[in-house]
Amino acid sequence: MSGVRHVVVGADEAEQRLDRWFGRQFPHLTHGRLEKMCRKGEVRVDGARAKASTRVRPGQTIRVPPLPAGAPPFDQPAEPMVPDSAEAEAIQATVLYRDDHVLVIDKPPGLAVQGGTGQHRHLGAMLPALRFERPGDPRPVHRLDKDTSGLLVLARTGVAAVALSRAFRSRAVEKIYLAAVAGRPDPLAGRIRYGLVKAGGKGSEKMRVLHPDDVGATEGARTAMTDYRVLEAAAQRASAVALRPVTGRTHQLRAHMAALGTPIAGDGKYGGRGQENKGDGWGAGLGGALSRKLHLHAARLVLPHPVEERSLMLTAPLPEHMARSWAFFGWDPALPDPVFDE
User: Fold this and answer.
1) Alpha-carbon span 297 to 303, nearest angstrom
2) Cys bridge to 70: 28, 295, 296, 333, which one at CB 3.0-4.6 A?
3) Is 145 a residue of the active site?
4) What would the pLDDT profile of 211-243 be if each residue is shown by its tens digit?
5) For the CA atoms of 277, 186, 269, 234, what is the dihedral angle to 10 degrees?
6) What residues contact residue 257 under an 8 Å CB cut-off, 6+ apart?
7) What pTM, to 2 d.p., does this model score?
8) Of 145, 186, 267, 280, which one is the catalytic site residue?
9) Ramachandran category for residue 270: left, alpha or beta (phi over 0 → left; psi -120 to 50 → alpha)
10) Can you point out the beta strands (E) in 212-281?
């Protein structure tokens, strides 16, 4: 066990989440252990209590408590995780765009962005394969759920990490997802304004929806907004829907679509495993030969380039299991342009 340390975030380290900072400094430290230390107030930023999601900036001082055995001291860099050749080739094949500052991949479903308790295969362990002659690993600047596929942006330089993180936080990035949902939303387009709050339960990230008027009076609740548009439908059985998150809350799209009674196909957490509507919303299964995997895909991103005065518009094709469902229903996998009328 090492003693308490007070470490200043380096000038060459971009603004980032506290858990990601710890993950780079101490890859042996589990996310669950870090969460526990934060809850007990053992980890502090500039003397203040912090959460794993707290953003830290260059120049801030982080209190690092005694760590479990196996975590190296700061003056002894951790041995980097190196993906094997098959993993390296697989993650490199997902690259859709690359320049000196930005890297964009088409994240496959089932791959977590960062590790956690019991999570050994994750993008964080594969980042060395995405260096492409750069001395350091690229840094994800936003998140996708493990089972959500599609466009994920990584910064290749500190300057890019700061600019891209700010762009995502300030809603300067347009994100459009494609989803297959059970049933057909009514009306066919609109904005969902239900607030979200953690449902509770040990280790659970599940969110509970609230009427907008109840958000202010509910501890921990946050406003949330999602634009949606039905693109195609198979009668009342299933629909292809475009989704645009106006805010970026945990599980926002999944909770919002379930709240309409049309959960995203394959989403057992919010829609259950059933395949019928008994009056309280559709189950999330489409039945038959269709895949039981989550049908949610980050299909299009429009974002300002972090260094150059231009915008990037990127698209990612549907993953295999969603492409099969689209072919089964005879739906067009291409997004219309524009997707949403302003």
Assistant:
1) 17
2) 28
3) yes
4) 999 999 999 899 999 999 999 999 988 999 999
5) 70
6) 179, 181, 185, 228, 241, 243, 263, 264, 270
7) 0.79
8) 145
9) alpha
10) 226-234, 238-245
